[in-house]
Amino acid sequence: MQIALKCPLPKGVWGLGSCGISNLQVLLKNNVLSLSSVIDLCRKMRKFEVLVYTSTAYSNCNHLNFPLKEEVYRLPFHAGKFLDALKNEDKEKLQELFAHCKPDWPNFYSFSKCLAENLLTDTASDLPVAIIRPSIVFSTWKNPIPGYVEENSGIITVFIGNDSEDMSEHINEFFMLVDKLREIEIEIANDLLTILLLYSIPESYENFRIAIESRDELPSPETLKIKIIEEANARKNKEIPTFPTHNELSTPRKRSMSVTSKTEVANVDGRRNRNNKQKFKLKCNYCGIFGHKGSICRKSKKIKI
């Protein structure tokens, strides 16, 4: 009841958690047992309206009767049997149950998603539940999690370059991959393509990347391609980079101090004398002669005597 009192307002729950570890027991704990806890939490919400679970398009990839139907493909066992084995940490029982699930899945991850869908069918049939099956979960640029694309996750890992790679070759390979995606009818919007290209360049181009991102509008992929090549050529020819390095940005500039002060000049023999212009700026109040103050004027002393 304490949990119910703490969450009276939420109306919808998104089940987005996922784990890709190859260990069957650990993976099922993260992807299936955790979902069971979410279902229990939904039952305690006072204004609960819907649970949206994010599965995967590969949850039933072990079936070859294409096209796959928009339904939950049932396992030979109730999902509760897997939960009991997980709670008891019975690894042998888990492996036995998994071995009886046919046809074989290519990996534990896709199986865990199928089991999660079965868990929803078996234990949450009385709740309003929606299951979505995205074909791929892509990295984000600014929304809803700014900077998530920097983690090099998802499909962006395919495009990542390194410092030792020639930038022209890297860009050519980048657009070759884009063309291959188009051949299988995966079209990437220009804005997203610009972001992918921007984050595919090595980390040493971080300041270049920041400068491009800070603009009001992103350049087109072709324009960005030209700018990257120009920046790479400038670095290759040991010219001053278009954008300062990280050390230059973080290190404060020091004022250059002259060996001689503004009021001193060095003679040929190394001695320093006062600047002549500074010397004759003073005028005596008593005699009117430049070069000394009234307090040290000889005439004023004579008058006092």
Automatic annotation (TrEMBL):
GO terms for cellular component: peroxisome. This is Fatty acyl-CoA reductase. Its EC number is 1.2.1.84. Residues 241-260 are annotated as: Disordered. The keyword Signal does not apply. One of its GO terms (biological process) is long-chain fatty-acyl-CoA metabolic process. Keywords: Lipid biosynthesis, Lipid metabolism, NADP, Oxidoreductase. The lineage of its organism: Eukaryota, Metazoa, Ecdysozoa, Arthropoda, Chelicerata. Catalyzes the reduction of fatty acyl-CoA to fatty alcohols. GO terms for molecular function: alcohol-forming long-chain fatty acyl-CoA reductase activity; alcohol-forming very long-chain fatty acyl-CoA reductase activity. The keyword Lyase does not apply. Coiled coil: none annotated. PANTHER family: FATTY ACYL-COA REDUCTASE CG8306-RELATED, MALE STERILITY PROTEIN 2-RELATED. Residues 23-169 form the Thioester reductase (TE) domain. InterPro entries: FAR, FAR_NAD-bd, NAD(P)-bd_dom_sf. Gene3D superfamilies: NAD(P)-binding Rossmann-like Domain (3.40.50.720).
